Automatic annotation (TrEMBL):
GO molecular function: ATP binding; CMP kinase activity; dCMP kinase activity
Classification via HAMAP family: Cytidyl_kinase_type2
Gene Ontology biological-process annotations: pyrimidine nucleotide metabolic process
Family listed: Belongs to the cytidylate kinase family. Type 2 subfamily.
EC number: 2.7.4.25
GO annotation, cellular component aspect: cytoplasm
Organism phylogeny: Archaea, Thermoproteota, Thermoprotei, Desulfurococcales, Desulfurococcaceae
Amino acids binding ATP: G11, P12, P13, G14, S15, G16, K17, T18, T19
Superkingdom of the organism of origin: Archaea
Gene name in the database record: cmk
SUPFAM superfamilies: P-loop containing nucleoside triphosphate hydrolases
Keywords noted in UniProt: ATP-binding, Cytoplasm, Kinase, Nucleotide-binding, Transferase
Protein name (database record): Cytidylate kinase
Keyword Cytoplasm: yes
InterPro entries per UniProt: Cyt_kin_arch, P-loop_NTPase
């Protein structure tokens, strides 16, 4: 079963979703795909900032559709943990476990500032703009509200638990569901 297992980990920027997804993939010997990393790579290849690329993606749905296609193809192969802001919605019906990792906006902004080496005020402005753009984009393209967590298997606050503890919670859930 584990070679077919698909886990989708979503959540807003700075929530810890990629850190958790990497831990799970390593612990369970699964592949890891980060939609956010692919998005950042596409922005870099075009010589655009993350904000400018988000604005472009809002006008050009082909960017999201390309990323979605990659995520779905990788999920269909199985044996993978896929993380991305909208991954659990996108992989509904494919993923065996859909998880949201979340945290307050202030904590997420602090984490992003530390990760990117930028001042808090700049990161706050960028994050608020990016989240507004992404929410509008996902509503328009998919009809989903990326802040509605009501339809998931697990919603975990990363302010309360370390990445390792979150990975353990997810592994316990997989065992409980007899998926591993």
């Amino acid at each position: 079963m584990q070679d077919k297992l698909v886990i989708a980990v979503g959540g807003p920027p700075g929530s810890g979703k990629t850190t958790v997804a990497k831990l799970i993939s390593k612990r369970l010997n699964l592949r890891h795909i980060s939609i956010g990393a692919l998005f950042r790579k596409m922005a870099e290849e075009r010589g655009l900032s993350l904000i400018d690329f988000s604005i472009l993606a809002q006008r050009d749905p082909s960017i999201d559709l390309e990323l979605d296609s990659i995520a779905i193809k990788e999920a269909q192969k199985g044996g993978v943990v896929i993380d991305g802001h909208a991954a659990p919605w996108l992989l509904k019906g494919i993923a065996h476990l859909r998880v949201i990792v979340t945290a307050s906006k202030e904590v997420r902004i602090k984490r992003l500032a530390e990760r990117d080496g930028k001042p808090i005020d700049i990161v706050r402005e960028e994050t608020e703009l990016r989240e507004r753009i992404e929410r509008e984009r996902y509503l328009r393209i998919y009809g989903i509200d990326i802040y509605d967590f009501s339809n998931f298997d697990l919603v975990i606050n990363s302010e309360k638990f370390s990445p390792e503890a979150i990975a353990e919670i997810i592994v316990t859930a997989l065992k409980t569901l007899k998926l591993i």
